[in-house]
Amino acid sequence: MLDAPSHDLDRATVQKAYGGWAPIYDALCGPVFLIGRKAAVKAARQVGGKVLEIGVGTGLSFPDYDETTEVTGIDITEPMLARARRKLETGRYPHIRDIRIMDAHNLEFEDASFNVVVAQFVITLVADPERVLDEAARVLRPGGEIVLMSHLYSEQGIGAAIERWVAQRTRAIGLRPEFPFSRLVRWAETRSDIELAERRDLGPLYSLVRFRKLG
Ligand SMILES: C[S@@+](CC[C@H](N)C(=O)[O-])C[C@H]1O[C@@H](n2cnc3c(N)ncnc32)[C@H](O)[C@@H]1O
CDD domains this protein is in (predicted)? Predict the structure, then answer.
């Protein structure tokens, strides 16, 4: 398995990029991410209980949660979260309990606060993915799951070449198509309390990855 060169994005770049995307985000990413988003929320609902969604963005996932869950969402980009707030104000999403500005690198929650931590189209964008995963594992209860939905690096062939080419040009707009799965696997291997539960590719665009925290 080949690793792409590391191009972790920095916080300022991501905030600027998603501040710019916010007004058109739902129109653009709503349809593209639909299948992935539904699969991630379904996986979260199968565990149920308290859910933390990191990088919740404009709240596109809100309609997919139900009474089996109590959701808290966090994000670092105020214009994205402002849109999520407006959705909440409609009163249509009683299962979404709280949304807050917060950096996933420094979660302001007690250890073992959540049954599930969901990160949809986020883990490849953060400045320090391993730290964010450590934080997710910290706030997770034993038996709980981390559910990731992201585009993962194709690793080989023309797909990988295109992703490397695109990656050099799309950093400033907050896209990162060359994040290797092996990096997630290696993170799990550093932890005695985490096991990889599943990787499921949903077409060429994105993959579901689930980690379980051992009890
Ligand atoms: C591609 S959007 C995905 C939004 C939403 N999860 C969805 O599926 O529509 C990435 C989001 O992650 C947020 N984000 C990036 N880095 C973050 C961090 N360190 N902490 C919290 N949120 C972050 C961005 O602000 C942005 O809203």
Answer: AdoMet_MTases
Q: Is the CB of residue 104 below 6 angstroms from any atom belonging to ligand 1?
A: yes
Question: Beta-strand (E) ranges in the chain?
Answer: 49-54, 69-75, 96-101, 114-120, 140-150, 194-202, 206-213
Angle of the 11-47 helix axis to the 78-89 helix axis, nearest 10: 40
Give tens-digit pLDDT for 134-163. Answer: 999 999 999 999 999 998 876 777 777 777
Q: How far does residue 56's CA lie from ligand 1's centre (Å)?
A: 6
Residue nearest to atom 1 of ligand 1 (CA): 121
Q: What is the CATH number of domain 11-213?
A: 3.40.50.150
pLDDT tens digits for range 50-104: 999 999 999 999 999 999 999 999 999 999 999 999 999 999 999 999 999 999 9
Instruction: Tell me which residue of 126, 114, 143, 141 sits closest to 187, measured CA to CA.
Output: 126
